[in-house]
Amino acid sequence: MTNLLEQPWVKDFPWSQEGSKQIASKVFAYDPKEAGLPIEKLNLLLCGGVGAGKSSIVSLIDSVCKGRTSAIAVHGTGSSSVTTNLTKYKMKPTGSKKNVKWQLWDTMGWGSDDYKGGELAFILDGNLPHGCDQRQRLSTKTANFKIKPSLEEEVHCVCLVVPSNAATDEKYMARLQEMRQAALERRIPTVVFLTKIDTYDPDLVGKDLTKTFHSQKLLELCKAVAIKAGVGGQKDVFPIKSMTDETGPTPALQALVCSALQKALYYAEDYVSNRVNDHSDDDIKSELYHQSD
User: Fold this and answer.
1) What pLDDT shows up at residue 163?
2) How confident is the model at residue 115 (pLDDT cuts 50, 70, 90)?
3) Which pLDDT belongs to residue 291?
4) Which residues contact 215 (CB under 8 A, 6 or more apart)?
5) For residue 141, what pLDDT band results from cuts at 50, 70 and 90?
6) Does the pLDDT value for residue 293 go beyond 70?
7) How far apart are CA 43 and CA 64, in angstroms?
8) Do the Cβ atoms of 281 and 187 come closer than 8 Å?
9) pLDDT of residue 290
């Protein structure tokens, strides 16, 4: 059976230079105030194992934002996480005096004995500050622990980062489910950023990124990951490729990552809106907080 699908499984994707510019403009111009939300910025959390590509995603997004190659987040290869501290990234488009109205939070890649879902809960609730060392055991006694964070300090959407080659790894996906459970208990939406798609399908996607949604192999992987991760179906799994041999963010790279970001922002917006309209969540969070201690 051929791997090349005649019709793409995502229709009308903005692959063109003009289309990718339009979706990028919408993402970087997003303002929660214009959506009627009572906060200044939304928080998106990147969460995944060692080598998943979280920091590479941050640098790609900043590159798209600036319109040139960026190395805002240090990343590399190896068996241990390059990122060891909870890190907040603010993006500022070239020529602008103001940061965008959302923030990316990068976390330490988990290993077999690294932080668990219960500790992730402190990050989701906004208890831990930028720069917090995640190599330590996280608890209410962690330095600068915030007892009552505001809604604006909470995480509003969790972006689970899954490298394509780990999607069939039972241990990796089990840890992913553990992390997602912490978000699910708080009704925080989750999406999956599926990375390294070019190496997963080198003969098609690796040669032409615009064939991403024509790949039968990648379609089946997205379906499987959606089930294993427990997200809302294939529509919540977003194939992404970071910059490797590219000299800058190409229209195809830009379109993929901005499409994923746009959905994450919309889900974050819905979460905040529901939190504002449903005060009972405060009681739910209080109960979960005491369970995590």
Assistant:
1) 95
2) low
3) 45
4) 3, 4, 5, 201, 204, 205
5) confident
6) no
7) 19
8) yes
9) 43
How many whole angstroms separate alpha carbon 157 and alpha carbon 128?
Answer: 16
DSSP letters of the chain? Answer: --SB-SS-SSTT---SHHHHHHHHHHHHT--GGGGT-SSS-EEEEEEEBTTSSHHHHHHHHHHHHHTS----S----SSS-S--B-EEEE---TT-SS--SEEEEE-PPB-TTS--HHHHHHHHTT-S-TT-BTTSPPSTTSTT--SS--GGGS--EEEEEEEGGGTT-HHHHHHHHHHHHHHHHTT--EEEEEE-HHHHSTTTTTT-GGGGGGBHHHHHHHHHHHHHHT-SSGGGEEE----SS-SS--HHHHHHHHHHHHHHHHHHHHHHHHHHH-THHHHHHHHHHHHH-
229, 269 Cβ separation under 8 angstroms: no
Task: Report the residue count for the chain.
Answer: 293
> What confidence score (pLDDT) does residue 74 get?
56
- Tell me the C-alpha distance between 220 and 198, whole Å: 15
- Token pair for residue 200? 């997963």
Q: Which amino acid would we find at residue 94?
A: T
Under the banding of pLDDT at 50, 70 and 90, the label for residue 95 is confident
% of the chain with per-residue pLDDT over 70 = 87
Nearest CA-CA partner of 44 in 263, 201, 289, 219 = 263
Query: pLDDT, tens digit, for every residue of 201-243?
Result: 999 999 999 999 999 999 999 999 999 998 988 999 999 998 8
**Residue in 187, 161, 183 with CA at minimum distance from that of residue 172:** 161
Q: Are strands 87-90 and 102-106 parallel, antiparallel or unpaired?
A: antiparallel
Determine the distance from the C-alpha atom of residue 203 to the mean position of all C-alpha atoms in its chain, rounded to a whole number. Answer: 27
Give residue 15's pLDDT band: very low, low, confident or very high (50, 70, 90). Answer: very high
- Angle (CA) 271-148-152 rounded to 5° is 35
